Amino acid sequence: MEYKFSDRISALQPSIIREILKGTGGTDIIPFAAGNPAAESFPVNEMSQIAAELFASSPAAALQYGITEGYPVLREQTRIRMQEKYSVGNDDIDDTLIVSGGQQGIELAAKVLCNEGDTVICESPSFIGALNAFRSYNLNLKGVDLENDGMDLDKLEAILKNDSKVKLLYVISTFQNPSGVTTSLEKRKALLELADKYDFIIIEDSPYFELRYSGDYVPPIKALDKNGRVIFAGSYSKVLAPGIRMGFATAPKPIASKMTVAKQVSDVHTNQFFQMLVSEFLKKHSIDAHIDSIKNLYRVKRDRMMDAVKAYFPEEITVNRPDGGLFLWCMMPKGYDSAAFCKTLAPYKVAAVPGAAFVIDQSEISSGIRLNFSLPTLEQIDRGIASLAEAAKCFIRK
Amino acid sequence: MEYKFSDRISALQPSIIREILKGTGGTDIIPFAAGNPAAESFPVNEMSQIAAELFASSPAAALQYGITEGYPVLREQTRIRMQEKYSVGNDDIDDTLIVSGGQQGIELAAKVLCNEGDTVICESPSFIGALNAFRSYNLNLKGVDLENDGMDLDKLEAILKNDSKVKLLYVISTFQNPSGVTTSLEKRKALLELADKYDFIIIEDSPYFELRYSGDYVPPIKALDKNGRVIFAGSYSKVLAPGIRMGFATAPKPIASKMTVAKQVSDVHTNQFFQMLVSEFLKKHSIDAHIDSIKNLYRVKRDRMMDAVKAYFPEEITVNRPDGGLFLWCMMPKGYDSAAFCKTLAPYKVAAVPGAAFVIDQSEISSGIRLNFSLPTLEQIDRGIASLAEAAKCFIRK
Q1: CB-based contact B97:B251 (threshold 8 Å)
Q2: Cβ burial, residue A130 (10 Å; 0-12/13-18/19+)
Q3: Min CA distance, B395 vs chain A (Å)?
Q4: How many beta carbons lie within 10 A of that of residue A92, not counting itself?
């Protein structure tokens, strides 16, 4: 039988990254493709103990239906921490929701704010999960080239002047995925001014901002938001564990209220047991100390991968050293198609994500390669980068 | 600041039921409003032991990112159980996905199959969570009156003849929410014939079908589906626990594939830890025996509520005895507005859901009242029904 799908979905393909992962999981392939945290960063003992306590003390609450906005204690803990530590959120105009991973915050924001055919401006390149969420509502994506300090503002304003259908600007402000770029304070302020001038909402996706290994802290755009222009999509995936699907969104109250209605028809509420577990973790342990331990782990891995890249990679490939996050972003010489390159990697027992996964216009050819350093071991980093270098020499110089 | 929301969302209100629950939770009000399972039905000891084992043996897998389609072992266990026990699903044409509660299966199906303005036919009355999911995609809902054995087929075919935009028919085939009606085998077959004749897809929502306390088993519509016309939305909420948000969808492969893409942009995957926990539960324990124990618990509660209703309710209110599920559906005399009645209940310390929550046309006045018997204790049932009867006499005879 032939099925007819909705216009919004019929052309949408699964994430290239997740397809690569399905093909390379559970094998002897060195995993530079994933965006996975290191398993040794999960606070397993603490979580295990809290889980046992929850089953003993409050199983009825932890296994029963909860409210859509989130477990009230966790909402409040999240709100207070984000507000006191990062000035994200505001008692008066903002509200914090618990969502099933940062991704859900982005998808709900798109659903409640955009009609089909509206425009979303994105950094180019950008995170495929968000791009596909926008595509799944038939939105019109327009990419703005990334410079070393964020979007090219001239190109951005050129779009804004000519497109009255811009509803959203999507930005991964700190340690951008895949480029590693952090938007400067000046450009953050400029984005807010443009949001006021051209009347759009900013989705600030910030799953990595607490994982800084070098350089100076830059406040979130949301911390500078005086007029209720910013939705902050936050995540516990990279600082606790991703498999529990736990994130949050801090948004102007009217937007948070509509996102709640949209979440209600999607998954009713986020897993109640793990909302309570994360809440107890935040009560009993220092998440800041835990994040420090993750940073110490990943800083070493980043440095090791940078060293290996310098030692092994052919000079034709350029790499920027990121100040945080999970990824190195490499560029092959202009004109080389990294998607074709990544397909040659299987015999080298290494997996990487081609830039094609992150382009806004899906017909565009990319010479970028994203390498994850959080998941592989130091030994895998050395061996994998050496293999990748061999493959690259072969591909570039053949 | 004034925000402009998408057309699909701007008129959508939160579920009346969930708003009632927010207002009546944690108090001394007798809970007939919820659709919550009894906490004593949760297999707490078994889950607690499995959780401890998972943290000890495979924390890296249980806390790490998983694949969107679901934990492969749980998918396969679910598929095999549904196929062998209920003939739901088929190796060749169907696929089974794990979703974050049965609700998500319904929402994803609507998203991938319907364009804005398409028609969804629903039973009238029907489950607000599904109705709101359809409304959240700007779909056109058309209700078909329920008879004692399912939809009025003449009225259904009258709609089908005159509306070429019907893409979906949504049916809660067994122990319908709120009416308790089970669609007869004859009508199930007729729905499939109409689906072929008028080219639409059936969403069969069946969260309660294993909770039968009397009467004869009727096979799911999906078990009769030879042509790939049916999406079965299943749930572990009522047979294990709802707070873990664990459901499944069995759908023709091309539809399941698009639903996977849509799920990927929504929550990436369902909580991995609890997917593995449910999988271990199914391996180590008999879910059939567990369901039998729930049925024994709820059968007594249903009978107790029916007895109390007969003893206390004024004769003007009619009630059908449901053969399963979680609800009694009561009708006040025609013309009485049960929404106004339910607002009088606070001093009586009892909460119920007015039929207005389940109407297709939101301007319609309903005289129905839904009463849940799974959550309250036997003592609460006696006391609550007596109070409700007092309130009803007052309201009807004043």
Answers
A1: yes
A2: buried
A3: 31
A4: 6
pLDDT tens for B144-181 read 999 999 999 999 999 999 999 999 999 999 999 999 99
Number of H helices, E strands in chain A: 14, 14
B309 token code pair: 């209703």
> For testing the chain B interface, which of A115, A266, A276, A280 should be mutated: the one with the most B CBs within 10 Å?
A266
Cβ-defined contact of B14 to A67 (cutoff 8 Å): no
Low-confidence ranges of chain B (pLDDT < 50): none
What is the pLDDT at residue A23? 66
Q: Do B314 and B392 touch, CB atoms closer than 8 A?
A: yes
* Mutation for B interface: A45, A47, A265, most B CBs within 10 A: A265
Can you give the pLDDT at residue B370?
97
The predicted structure's pLDDT at residue A14: 78
DSSP B212: B
Distance CA A390, CA A383 (A): 11
B73 by Cβ neighbours in 10 Å (0-12 / 13-18 / 19+) ranks as middle
In sequence order, what DSSP letters do the residues of B308-347 get, joined into one string?
HHHHHS-TTSEEE--SBSSEEEEEPSTT--HHHHHHT-GG
From residue A234, give the alpha-carbon distance in Å to each of A88, A173, A210, B76, B151.
10, 12, 11, 33, 45
**Neighboring chain A residues of B47 at a CB cutoff of 8 Å:** 55, 59, 63
User: What's the CA gap between A336 and A333, in Å, rounded?
Assistant: 6
d(CA B144, CA B123): 5
SS3 A99: strand
Cα separation of B10 and B135, whole Å?
10
E-strand ranges in B60-139 read 94-99, 119-124
In this complex, how many residue pairs, one in chain A and one in chain B, have their CB atoms less than 8 Å apart?
249
Cα distance between residue B373 and residue B371, in whole Å: 6
Give B31's contacts in chain A (Cβ within 8 Å): none
Half-sphere exposure of B301 (CA within 13 A, CB side): 30
Q: B125 preceded by cis ω (within 30°)?
A: yes
Q: What are the helix (H) ranges across B115-266?
A: 128-135, 153-162, 185-198, 253-266
Which pLDDT does position B23 carry in this prediction? 67
Mutation target for A interface from B65, B74, B92, B260: give the one with most A CBs within 10 A: B65
Which residue in the set B67, B100, B112 is minimally distant from A100, CB to CB? B100
CA-CA-CA-CA dihedral for B131, B136, B141, B144, to nearest 10: -10
On whether the CB atoms of residues A18 and B67 are closer than 8 A, the answer is: yes
Of B5, B56, B265, the CB nearest to A113: B5
Rounded to two decimals, the ipTM of the complex is: 0.97
Instruction: Calculate the alpha carbon distances from B217 to B146, B210, B323, B324 in Å.
Output: 20, 9, 10, 11
**Contacts B100 to A, Cβ<8 Å:** 100, 245, 266-267, 271
Would you state the structure tokens that stand for residue B43, as one six-digit string? 């297999």
Q: State whether A55 and B36 contact (CB < 8 Å).
A: no
- The percent of residues above 90 in pLDDT, for chain A, comes to 91
pLDDT of A227-268, one tens digit each? 999 999 999 999 999 999 999 999 999 999 999 999 999 999
Task: Tell me if residue B14 falls in helix, strand or coil.
Answer: coil
pLDDT digits (tens, 9 = 90+) for A5-47: 999 998 788 777 777 776 666 568 999 998 999 999 999 999 9
d(CA B77, CA A236): 30
pLDDT recorded at residue B15: 76
Q: What pLDDT sits at residue B24?
A: 67
